[in-house]
Specification:
By secondary structure, this protein is an alpha/beta fold. The chain has 11 helices and 13 strands. Helix content is 33%, strand content 15%.
């Protein structure tokens, strides 16, 4: 239920026949909390994600979940490369759904940045900055990310097999009940590595030209769409620019966006950077212009599911009025809020108040907490 005065950010967001209660997303953020190193979700994951759902986020995306064991960013990452991992994910989904949010999962392969020690303050030397000795490190080309080991270049047949691994993991995600499957095509991980000329110097069908470099991402989208069928929302997260000379640009990503939609993507989640060291002009909403450019590029197109593509923006969006301005003016369809949500799980509740909404029922926020509303 909404009223004529409901802020745009708190209005429902339709996606492929499903509807999120609002346009606030919890983006995937790695927790590095699978202490058994088996990829299986724990009580920690259930509690962490359900808390943000109770807090009012319309869509909750579970952290990068590996499609192969060697694709994990660290040994402590979640996985969906094995059927035995499905029940743990189902627990997460059920907890998110019980709190009223849509549940999504990000499927990824770390490529040349995989196999790092899990981040822990003062307890993991080289966390996220070096490669664990003996890790089977693979990438489009044998080019190391600075500080990491040199990966071996995937053969064409191996690249095809990774595409199938994305599809198999997506099938498991659908079996677990996820509403949204997001492919991690950003931040210097495998899909992004294929897209960028700074990390892909191949001369076969998976490189050599923009079309060749886009092949892996497009094949992954098509394969995952085929694996999950018509009911699941398919999302891909992109780094719109490498922020580096000779790398991906906003123009490149704007050209790619309609191709991804035609291949089966319903949602484009726009971030930037991560593939090479770069000077990034971080500031409030610094990535929003890239999302706006992608949104303009897909305007007037229709997803295979029959709806309009949804564009999500992210990056130093820390105030309710800022988020509202982004969505209300059409720069993006939804806003993902990461680090602030680590500090404040109930951020949507406070932002509703900041935007003048104290009727929590109208805002779709938890009935159990209405007595705590500001008056």
């Amino acid at each position: 239920m909404t009223t004529p005065t409901t802020p745009t950010i708190l209005t429902p967001l339709p996606m492929r026949g499903r509807t999120a209660r609002n346009r606030l997303w919890l983006p995937p953020m790695c927790m590095y909390s699978v202490d058994a190193h088996d990829g299986v979700a724990t009580d920690w994951h259930v509690l962490h994600y359900s808390a943000r759902a109770v807090g009012g986020f319309g869509t909750v995306i579970v952290e990068a979940t590996a499609v192969t064991p060697n694709g994990r960013l660290s040994p402590a990452d979640l996985g969906l490369w094995d059927d035995a991992q499905v029940p743990g994910h189902r627990r997460i989904v059920e907890a998110i759904h019980a709190a009223g949010s849509l549940a999504g999962v990000q499927l990824g392969h770390g490529g040349r940045k995989a196999g790092t020690p899990p981040w822990r303050p003062d307890s993991a030397a080289g966390a996220r900055t070096t490669t664990i000795e003996g890790w089977d490190l693979v990438a489009p080309s044998a080019i190391a990310h600075p500080g990491h080991a040199v990966p071996r270049a995937l053969t064409g047949e191996e690249a095809d097999a990774v595409v199938r691994a994305f599809a198999d993991a997506a099938r498991r995600a659908a079996a677990a009940g996820y509403d949204v499957v997001e492919l991690h095509g950003a931040h210097g991980y495998l899909i992004h590595e294929f897209l960028s000329p700074l990390s892909n110097t191949r001369t076969d069908a998976y490189g050599g030209s923009p079309d060749g470099r886009r092949r892996f991402a497009l094949q992954a989208v098509r394969a995952v769409r085929g694996a999950v069928g018509d009911d699941v929302v398919l999302d891909i997260r992109l780094s719109a620019t490498d922020w580096a000379e000779g790398g991906l640009t906003g123009e490149d990503t704007a050209e790619l966006a309609p191709l991804l939609v035609a291949a089966g993507a319903d949602v484009l989640h726009v971030s930037t950077g991560g593939n090479v060291p770069a000077r990034v002009p971080v500031g409030p909403g610094y990535q929003v212009p890239f999302a706006a450019r992608v949104r303009a590029a897909v305007a007037g197109t229709t997803t295979p599911g029959g709806g309009e593509p949804v564009v999500v923006t992210v990056g130093v969006i820390t105030e309710a009025a800022q988020a509202e301005q982004i969505v209300a003016t059409g720069l993006a369809d939804a806003v993902a809020v990461g680090r602030p949500a680590l500090r404040e799980p109930y951020l949507p509740v406070r932002w509703a108040h900041d935007l003048g909404v104290n009727d929590w029922q109208a805002a779709g926020l938890p009935i159990q907490y209405w007595r705590g509303a500001w008056r």
